[in-house]
Design goal:
By secondary structure, the protein is an alpha/beta fold. Helix content is 51%, strand content 8%. It has 16 helices and eight strands. The two termini are 43 Å apart. Bound molecules: zinc ion (ZN). Zinc ion binds next to helix 1 and helix 6.
């Protein structure tokens, strides 16, 4: 479900709000989501830190796609390393993987070129390899989509690299059996975590190719966009001192804005209740309550029956049974719907827990810190080399140093995640220059 979700968190807030208007569900889980805890070592500014509960990778008890399971070995680090091109694969490893599974990859040479590039990152390589070992297949489709029931990842007609990384992350969260993936509401709550990780990939990948991280197109908030535009003007004007001064505000404002959007989205999601069950045919029934429509709205495919309705009522059951694509599933669908209506504890709430929110806030802050770090390094590098800021990004030595700075940040955060991300990011640059 990439086409809807690629726009990021801001759109999730809009989508969730649209679905939840007029819903007055009395069973809404009371999530204390007005504030996400921040941490910092003594003497440092408050900043976001992960919950340390592995809230995004912890297995969830009610697993809905049991065939994709088992998680990843230690050392596979979604929080810091995945997509950051810090740990790189060898030419031999990449060639061997692509040759071995050639029959499960598209044949289009430009798609293969995208695979060759993204699997330079060891985390992405490991995830793609695990998907292929699990029997997964990549195929061309009308848009990007992860379909675990058929073990297919569809790649859309554009942005191959972006689609591969986005869709393989759906697999990663599914393989962890994490709640974000297993509770499938309006396209998957794992998008909360996927978006900032894909953004991390974008930032680092763009710098590897000589790009200025501020030119990245994305769905940024108002504040982050306008501060970014101001810094871009300073890059053009070669005003390094001004940039160095505004980075602090840039990091704080952008992070706060993102966390506010996260909390807002979560508040909307809290009003949605869902049911996800596997059916005898192998397909899935997915019901989401809390939308605006008083009558059921259907999305039907051979492998999935999705139903959206404000409040499920006994008189809807007949209509729903008529929409079931496989006759053998009808009794089970009826039984599940009746159980769902009679027992309010059946089904799931889509909203994130406080530790999940905290971890996603950390991923968002990490993405902003990587941008701020690239800009701070650019300023220091241009001072040292007497080089105009606008040409720094294309310099291979700058690109090499940025990779080191990202590596130092990641390794440090892995050990001491409660220290300020932003301050650690700057210190890593100071160490290198
Ligand atoms: Zn998606």
């Amino acid at each position: 479900m990439k086409e809807i979700w690629r726009k990021g968190l801001r759109n999730l807030a809009v989508a969730a709000t649209a679905l939840s208007l007029e819903s007055g569900d009395a069973h809404a889980k009371n999530v204390p989501n007005t504030e996400i805890p921040t941490h910092a070592a003594s003497g440092e500014k408050q900043d976001y830190a992960p919950s340390r509960l592995h809230a995004l990778t912890q297995p969830f008890e009610a697993v809905t796609s049991p065939e994709i399971t088992g998680g990843f070995p230690e050392g596979f680090d979604l929080y810091h390393e995945f997509g950051a091109f810090v740990s790189l694969t060898t030419d031999e490893e990449r060639a061997a993987l692509l040759a071995r599974y050639a029959d499960r990859l598209p044949t289009d040479p430009s798609v293969i070129a995208a695979f060759e590039e993204v699997i330079q990152d060891r985390g992405i390589y490991t995830a793609i390899q695990a998907w292929l070992v699990d029997g997964g297949l990549f195929s061309m489709g009308t848009w990007g989509r992860y379909v675990p029931e058929k073990k297919v990842i569809y790649i859309g007609p554009e942005d191959y690299k972006d689609t591969i990384v986005h869709e393989i992350l759906h697999y990663v969260f599914d393989k962890y059996d994490n709640e974000l993936s297993e509770v499938r509401v309006i396209g998957g709550a794992d998008h909360f975590a996927i978006n900032p990780i894909v953004e991390r990939f974008h930032i680092v990948e763009s710098i590897r190719h000589g790009g200025n991280p501020l030119r990245l197109v994305g769905q940024l908030g108002q504040e982050e966009r306008s501060l970014g535009e101001r810094i871009s003007l300073s890059v053009e004007a070669n005003a390094g001192a001004e940039i160095a001064q505004s980075l602090d505000e840039y990091y704080r404002s952008a992070t706060e804005e993102r966390v506010d959007a996260l909390i807002e989205s979560n508040r909307s999601l809290d009003e949605l209740r869902s049911l996800h069950v596997r059916l005898p045919s192998g397909g899935a029934l997915e019901l989401t309550e809390g939308g605006r429509s008083p009558e059921p709205v259907f999305l039907i495919s051979p492998e999935r029956l999705e139903i959206f309705v404000w409040k499920l009522k006994p008189e809807h059951v007949h209509t729903i049974l008529l929409a079931v694509p496989h006759e053998e599933d009808m009794n089970e669908v009826q039984r599940h719907l009746e159980q769902y209506m009679s027992d309010p504890t059946v089904g799931e709430r889509a909203s994130l827990s406080i530790s999940q929110l905290q971890d996603v806030a950390y991923l968002e802050a990490y993405a902003v810190a990587l941008k701020a770090q690239a800009l701070y390094l650019a300023v220091r590098f241009s001072e040292k080399r007497g080089m105009p800021l606008s040409s720094v990004f294309a310099d291979p030595e700058y690109q090499r140093m940025y990779r080191r700075a990202v590596e130092i940040l990641g390794k440090h955060q892995e050990r001491k995640p409660n220290q300020s991300l932003y301050i650690t990011a700057r210190r890593a640059v100071d160490r290198l220059i």
